[in-house]
Automatic annotation (TrEMBL):
Pfam families: Pyr_redox_3. PANTHER family: FLAVIN-BINDING MONOOXYGENASE-LIKE PROTEIN (AFU_ORTHOLOGUE AFUA_4G09220) (PTHR43539). InterPro entries: Auxin_biosynth/cation_transpt (IPR050982), FAD/NAD-bd_sf (IPR036188), NTF2-like_dom_sf (IPR032710). SUPFAM superfamilies: FAD/NAD(P)-binding domain (SSF51905), NTF2-like (SSF54427). The keyword Cytoplasm does not apply. This is NAD(P)/FAD-dependent oxidoreductase. The keyword Aminoacyl-tRNA synthetase does not apply. It comes from Terrabacter ginsenosidimutans. Keywords: Oxidoreductase.
Length: 593
């Protein structure tokens, strides 16, 4: 047992050690098992140093001015022998927030996160703009004139510093942060209106995550907003967000090609905007196309002779047109369940083809046991707003996140034993992840393999959705035939078969060489199913520098897009301002075998 210290006492010694400039003195304050996760503030990266040796290497590998200074404890607590403290800090470039967990007098986990650039604060509060010109020299252009001129100037007599490809919740949340930081940013999206990404999805779609988890930067949902947002309501919110946040946003615009000039440090991006070509030259290119890449559509013998409809789940038009028809849905994850339920509600006969095991968790149980302590009405009442919750979640290193998650999912498995027994009796192949750590680790490792139940599981259990397990061998004119010879009569086939890595968008827009240079996006290298090693400790290529200069990937769920957009925006703002951004531990390129 080490010397017993409160977290604030530990922070005092930590501050003194940092001030000494002695790496060994700093690392000596960390336990045998220890982690320091830095979000941009020291490393200009998202990086987790695991163990004293890696922490020492990180401290030695960054500029001395990047070390935290001016540490001040803001709150502390203790539970089960673990002392926690929130603190603020600064360094030569940033002001930041941190969270430390101390066991037996030494640090177990430490989070440092950049919150703002010292010399470039956001224009909020007393720094807000006036918004009006008074006196005799008032401009003849009003606010609307200036807004329209700004949006139309790109590609004519102005260039965006940042071009964001993809105008969904991720792209516009990032654009809002960049707007506040004064970074000229243009968002382009192929749909006619902001929010159409949601409006175009199948009729019954609602968010599976609760409202407390899904707020956008700066504009949280009002306190009467429904717990689960319907797709069209979400679309309308995003359209309003673009307007209220005054984002430069081109609709009906699609990037058709892009290339990077190493000499000039700029991209050339060809955009088809409402049928005419525009050429843009941004310095930074952000692909904000979600965490998923191009839809995976299997190539199967007989697809050319099948007489019915075939489409990927991303193109599903809704169940109404299939009333009275037999529809085979290939897959058993979120989209497959939603689509099967939608088909059943519209009088179709859905058949779910399960090809591999799937993790299921009831939405109510997820909210109660997993999300509730951080993202719920009770959490808000306890003073945990979504920004605080984001930092708490971020403070748990990915290496040990499974240990934090497993007890909650063990409790869910026990609480919902009857629910799971009914599914297994129907023949459903269940799992809780390779190490029983549940939904979030599956999501982080592979982005697939799970369903948050909002009703479809009951339909499977009682046979309203027919469940078949197996693999597709081929299609005939009127059926899907499995490898064991089973024939599933079908009027339509929906391929709920997921998506490729986000770097597929880079291959399509830029080149395969650039996509290969960047490597796989998403995954941790956990050596679990669909997430082979080597271990990286952070999500690959997300929200941080990649092996292709000036190319960034932004995506994830609403929570991740909201939280990590802060760090991506700060990295881009610093580059605009000419601030030195020496990246520590730029990740190696990784490709799936």
């Amino acid at each position: 047992m080490g010397e017993q210290l409160t977290a604030s006492e530990w922070l005092g010694r930590f501050s003194e050690a940092l001030a000494s400039g002695e790496v060994d003195r700093v690392t000596g304050l960390f336990g045998d098992e220890c982690y320091w996760r830095d979000l941009t503030s020291m490393t200009w990266n998202l990086h987790t140093a695991e163990g004293r040796e890696q922490i020492g290497a990180m401290l030695s590998g960054v500029e001395p001015g990047a070390w935290p200074t001016d540490l001040e404890t803001t709150s502390e607590s203790e539970a089960d022998g673990v002392h926690e403290a929130w603190f603020t800090f600064g360094n030569a470039t940033f002001t930041g927030k941190g969270l430390v967990r101390v066991r037996d007098g030494r640090a177990w986990t430490l989070l440092t996160s950049a919150q703002a650039l010292r010399d470039h604060p956001e224009p909020s509060g007393v720094r807000r703009p006036r918004g009006a010109e008074h006196g005799v020299n008032v401009s003849t252009e009003n606010w609307l004139d200036k807004r329209q001129q700004q949006v139309e100037s790109y590609g004519v007599d102005a260039e965006p510093y940042v071009l964001v490809v993809g105008g969904g919740q991720g792209g516009i949340g990032l654009a809002a942060r960049l707007k506040r930081l004064g970074v000229p940013t243009l968002v382009i999206d192929r749909y006619p209106r902001p929010g159409d990404q949601w409006r175009s999805r199948y009729h019954s779609l609602c968010l599976h995550d609760p409202v407390w988890y899904d707020h956008m930067p700066y504009l949280p949902f009002p306190d009467h907003w429904p717990v689960f947002t319907p797709k069209d309501k979400m679309g309308d919110w995003l359209e309003s967000y673009v307007s209220v946040m005054e984002l430069d946003y081109w609709t009906s615009s699609e990037a058709t090609s892009a290339s990077f000039d190493e000499a000039t440090g700029a991209w050339t991006v060809h955009v088809s905007r409402e049928g005419r070509e525009v050429v843009l030259h941004p310095a930074q290119l952000v692909l904000a196309t979600g965490m998923s890449g191009i839809p995976n559509v299997p190539t199967l013998p007989g697809q050319d002779v099948f007489s019915g409809d075939q489409h990927h789940s991303s193109k599903h038009p809704g169940g109404a047109r299939y009333a009275g028809k037999k529809v085979v849905v290939v897959g058993s994850n979120n989209s497959a369940h939603d689509i099967c339920a939608d088909l059943w509600q519209n009088g179709a006969e859905p058949i779910m083809l399960q090809r591999s095991s799937t993790h299921i968790v009831r939405s109510e149980s997820l909210m109660d046991k997993v999300l509730g302590p951080l993202y719920s009405e009770e959490a808000v009442a306890n003073g945990i707003d979504h920004d605080t919750a984001d930092l708490v979640f971020a403070s748990i290193p990915y290496k040990i996140l499974a240990d934090f998650q497993r007890p909650a999912f063990d409790a869910i498995r026990e609480q919902d034993a009857d629910f799971y027994a009914a599914l297994e009796s129907a023949g459903f192949d269940l799992d809780f992840g390779d190490d029983d750590s549940g939904l979030f680790l599956k999501y982080l490792r592979r982005g697939s393999g799970y369903y948050i139940d909002i009703g479809a599981s009951e339909l499977i259990a009682k046979g309203a959705i027919r469940l078949v397990r197996g693999q597709v061998d081929h299609l005939t004119e009127h059926a899907v035939v499995l490898t064991d010879g089973t024939e599933l009569e079908a009027d339509a086939v929906v391929y709920a078969t997921g998506y490729g890595s986000m770097n597929g968008w880079a291959a399509r827009l830029i080149s395969q060489d650039v996509a290969d240079t960047v490597g796989k996006c998403w995954g941790l290298g956990s050596d679990t199913t669909k997430d082979p090693g080597p271990w990286e400790g952070e999500l690959r290529n997300m929200w941080k520098p990649t092996r292709q200069d000036n190319l960034w990937f932004h995506g994830g769920n609403l929570h991740q897009s909201r939280h990590y957009s802060r760090y991506l925006a700060l990295q881009l703002k610093a580059r605009l301002e000419g601030i030195a951004t020496p990246v520590y531990a730029l990740a190696e390129t990784h490709h799936l075998a």
